[in-house]
Structures are given as C-alpha cells and as structure tokens.
Design goal:
Number of strands: 31
Radius of gyration: 29 Å
Structural class: alpha+beta
CATH topology of the largest domain: BirA Bifunctional Protein, domain 2
Distance between the termini: 19 Å
Number of helices: 14
Number of domains: 3
C-alpha cells in the first residue's frame, strides 16, 4: 500500500489526555482517533492490526470446534429481566427506548440473547455440546473512561458460549477454552498469567481471568513466589492463622476522641498500632444491612462478603442510612450495642483480639479494652479481608507477592445460572427435560491490542510482534525525486507484493527524518530503506525491535524477508 494514498495522520507530541504508552503511541502513530470520551475510530493501519488479533482468535476458536455467528447489538429488556440482570448489572448497562417506548440495552454481553436463541433451536442431547462465538462491538457506560482502549465505552470483544448436557461435559469444554486462550495470548507474544477470579455480574462459579503483566494494569494479582498459584486479589483466600493473646480481658471504657475519624488518627490518638483497633464498615447486602468488622490494618473485601451471603448486590451503606441505623456517622462506628436489624460479621483475625479499641457509635467517642465475645457478639466469622503481600500462599507453597495486570480474557463456568432462569432445556437420552449447563468466555480484542503495545514499545514508538504488525515491511524511498531511488523502490514494492509480502510503501515527498520518525512510530518489524546506494542496487534493511541493520542487494531482499518471517 502506498503511504501517500493512505489516511495515517501522525503526531509529534503526546495527546494531553493520554496517560499511558499504548494510548499515546496508538494515537500518535495514526492507529486510532477518539470521537468521544471512551469511543474510538480505528484508522486503516489500526484496523489491520485489529484484524490480525481477530484472526488469531478465530483460528484458535475453530480449532476447538467453536462456530462463529453474529448476534444483534440491540437487546430487548425482556430477556435481561428474565435473568434479573436488568437491575443487577448496574449503571454500566446502556439502556435506550425506541419510538414505542420499548426498553432495550446496547449489548454489554450476550448471555441472555444466546440462551434465548438456543432454547428455541436446540431440543435434544444429540445437538450437544455446542459452542458458538462472535466478534462484535460491546457497549458499557463506564463512569470514567481512561487509558485509551483499556477502558472504553465501546470496544471490540470476542464472546463465546457453550451449552453442555452435564457438568463433566462443561469441564471438558472449559479446559479446551482455557488452552485456546493460552494459545491466543502466547501467539500475541504476551507475558500473562491465568488467575482465579470473581464472576461478578456474569453469575456462575469457577472462573479465571487472563492478565497481561503491566505496571499500568488496574487489577492486582496475588501470586506465590514459590509455585504457579495466582489469583485476582479479590479472590485470593487468606489462610493465615492468628494466635489469641493470653492477655486477660479488661473492663471496656468509653473515651473521648474529638475530631479523630480515620483508623490511623484514632490509633495515633490512643497510642496503639493499627492492628490494635477494630475497623467497622456498614454494607447493604441485598435487602439487609451488615456491619463488617476487621482488624484496623486490614481492608474489607466486598467480593468475599458477597460470596459469604450469596448476594446479588453488595454496596457501602449511605451515610444517611448509617446514621439512621447506628445514630452516628462513619468515623465512630463499632460493633458494641448494634441494633437487631444490623447483622455483625467479622474477619477471622478479629476473633484473636483482646483489649482493642473500636468506635462507640457516638460522635467523637471510642471504646478501649474491647474484646470479642465479651463486649460484642458476631453472627459469623469468615475470611473477609484482602490478602496482603507476605501472607502464606493459599496453596501452601511460599508467600504472596503482588503484580499489576491488564485483564484481556475471562472464562466462566456459568452452570445453570442463565438456563434455569430462562427455561433452556433439552431432552436427555431418556427423554426427560433437563436444564442445559452453560459456559461463557470473553476476550477483549481491542483491549488485547493495547496490552500488546504496553509490552512492546520503546522511546521511539511501537515494536509490534511479527504476527500482529500491520505490514511485514515498511519500504522507504528517502528521496523519490531522484529517479534511481524511485525506480528501485517501485521495483522492490512490486517484487515484495508478488511474493505475498505485505508492504507499506512510504513514497511521500517528505524529509528523510520525518519518514524515519514515522517508521519508528508505526513499529513495522522490518524496514527497507532505498537511499544513496540505489544506483548500485543496494538498500539498507533494519529490524525495528533490535536495531540490527545490514546492506542487501536488490535480489536478496525478498528471500531475506521470507526467511525472517518464515513465510
């Protein structure tokens, strides 16, 4: 493709709103352009790399027997209401009304749509197992779109859905999909980890996220320093044991703590460490209010709280509701003398504490010498805190370390979550109606592209892996006004194309410095430069990632490129 005829607008400076490298470089190199917050156009060169990622995904999906289809992006609310997700999915679901005031959602995901389709078309166990997938734009009303393609309101996603007659069959499909995802991200050249994760609004149990390791990742991965264990920090269980103090419990005492609101402020005021205080936080768990108590140096894990109650919705109680129930605001909450309508649960670490401080449920006051069991009762002790670096690994091997990751894929065992609610059944081999067992599997295709750039760049631009790059070769004619350069470049352009090599040919009437800078930005793995030695039939060939370069004669170029790419 001749660059002079293409829309590839490059920028010398980073856009003001671009915080991370992938956002900066994809905009500067003319791969993407923002049209509104969190909404991007893929320009011609950007569309090419996106297609390369898509093709890898398609190939690996087809290898495991998944079949591609296409579902509508506009989804009727009735389907979402069947599963209850019309209300539980949250504010990220983009809802619209048509001219007849009928409610629709712009597709954030397609579990309801595919379940509706399959329940009408699949009737017998002989049609199972079945796995289908699509690659389609998805829509989510992100509160704070940021980081370019990593957190947008419209994005390209591969979503796949499996229907099985048994959980054993689902396990087989899940394992195949897990391996396919591993193959996809390996082929994309990514450094990633598959981690245990939470299913969130998707429903179901047993799920893994595929995380690309990156300092700009918004998720924290907890991993063992001595084994392959890895989990999203929300899902990593705490297996630490706590020895109860042999100190004799003292008489509880109320003390004035004026203007001391945070755990650190109270600890400093009372002269003890954070671990000697109780942190009490009010949550609304579905329709009831729950006070969660942890040690002062620990953080409440709301995902574990949700799983403890098998709840559909967990959120922090409002200041207004907290004052109505407890008679005080957030800074003075504690588990002593809690009203009957508030359930108290606590992390395991709390059970071992003796003579600690807590809020007195009165503005400006705290208790000292508080001991669980003596001064307050707990309805249940459970693992309710986030794991921390240095904690024992849940698999018993080594200790936990943290890394940041970008989520690029997620696989779920949905079980009967959707099929039961939507009455998706089939006749088994004995003629009995049986609920289908489902799985759901997503890859953020556009997100994967950004994650690749986060791992493949330098101070001059992108350094694409060979099978993701938009072209095999970037051919530069440094001075097309000189006939010998134009003639040799034109000949090489035709020879490379005839050999099945994809070429971006910079035939623009621009200065050599501009062409070199743009070439580095684009990140095409191999650059062929036609310059001063064109009259001798000699060109310079340079590898973008390593900087290695050599001079080749015209007749050597095609074979060099073919060998380099193993074409």
């Amino acid at each position: 493709m001749r660059q002079s005829q293409m829309l590839i607008p490059t920028l010398k400076e980073n856009p003001a709103d671009a915080e991370i490298k992938s956002h900066q470089l994809l905009v500067r190199a003319g791969y993407i352009r923002q049209i509104a917050s969190g909404i991007y156009s893929f320009l011609p060169i950007g569309r090419r790399v996106l297609s390369n990622v898509e093709n890898i995904v398609r190939e690996e999906m087809e290898k495991i027997g998944a079949h591609e289809m296409m579902m509508p992006a506009l989804e009727p609310s009735e389907l979402w209401k069947e599963t209850g997700r019309w209300t539980t999915f949250g504010s990220e679901l983009m809802r619209i009304n048509d001219r007849h005031n009928r409610e629709f959602a712009l597709g954030a995901t397609h579990e309801e749509v595919i379940t509706s389709l399959v329940r009408n078309e699949v009737k017998s166990y002989k049609q199972l197992p079945l796995t289908v997938f699509q690659i389609q734009n998805k829509f989510r009303d992100e509160a704070r779109p940021r980081f370019g393609l990593l957190r947008g309101r419209e994005f390209l996603m591969k979503d796949a859905y499996s229907f099985n007659e048994s959980y054993e069959s689902l396990d087989e499909t899940y394992d195949k999909m897990f391996q396919a995802y591993t193959n996809i991200f390996n082929r994309c050249g990514l450094n990633f980890r598959a981690v245990i994760a939470d299913s969130g609004a998707m429903g179901g149990k047993d799920t893994h996220e595929f995380m690309v390791l990156s300092e700009v990742g918004e998720d924290v991965i907890a991993y063992s320093d001595s084994s392959s264990y890895a989990a999203n920090i929300e899902m990593a269980p705490v297996v630490a044991t706590y020895e109860k103090s042999d100190e004799a419990p003292k008489e509880m005492e109320k003390v004035s703590t004026p203007n001391q609101k945070t755990m650190q402020e109270v600890a400093d005021f009372l002269g003890h460490g954070l671990e000697q205080g109780l942190k009490s936080i009010m949550f609304q768990v579905d329709e009831e209010y729950v006070m969660v108590v942890t040690r002062g140096d620990h953080e409440v894990n709301d995902v574990k709280l949700k799983n403890l109650f098998d709840a559909g919705l967990v959120e922090l109680a409002s200041e207004e509701d907290t004052r109505r129930l407890m008679g005080t605001g957030f800074g003075s909450l504690g588990p002593v003398d809690v009203p009957e309508e508030v359930k108290v649960v606590a992390d395991h670490a709390v059970e071992a504490l003796v003579n600690v401080s807590s809020g007195a449920n009165e503005e400006g006051y705290h208790y000292t010498n508080v001991t669980p069991g003596k001064d307050f009762e707990v309805s249940a002790y459970a693992d309710l805190r986030f794991i921390e670096e240095g904690d024992p690994s849940p698999d018993g091997e080594g200790t936990i370390q943290f890394a940041r990751g970008i989520e690029v894929g997620h696989v779920f065992k949905l079980g009967e979550f959707y099929s039961e609610r939507m009455n998706a059944t089939f006749l088994n081999d004995q003629g009995k109606a049986t609920t289908m067992i489902m799985g759901s599997y997503g890859i953020g295709v556009s997100r994967t592209l950004a994650a690749i750039v986060e791992q493949y760049h330098d101070d001059r631009g992108i350094t694409w892996p060979a099978n993701i790059a938009p072209y095999h070769v970037h051919l530069l004619s440094l001075n097309p006004k000189k006939e010998e350069q134009k003639e040799l470049a034109d000949q090489l352009y035709e020879e490379l194309k005839q050999a099945g090599i994809e070429v971006l040919y910079d035939d623009r009437k621009e200065r050599a410095g501009v062409k070199f800078a743009d070439s580095d930005l684009f990140g095409v793995p191999v650059r062929v430069t036609v310059g001063k030695r064109a009259g001798e039939g000699v060109v310079e060939v340079k590898e973008r990632a390593t900087g290695d370069q050599q001079d080749l004669e015209q007749h050597e170029v095609v074979s060099y490129v073919k060998n380099w790419y193993k074409l």
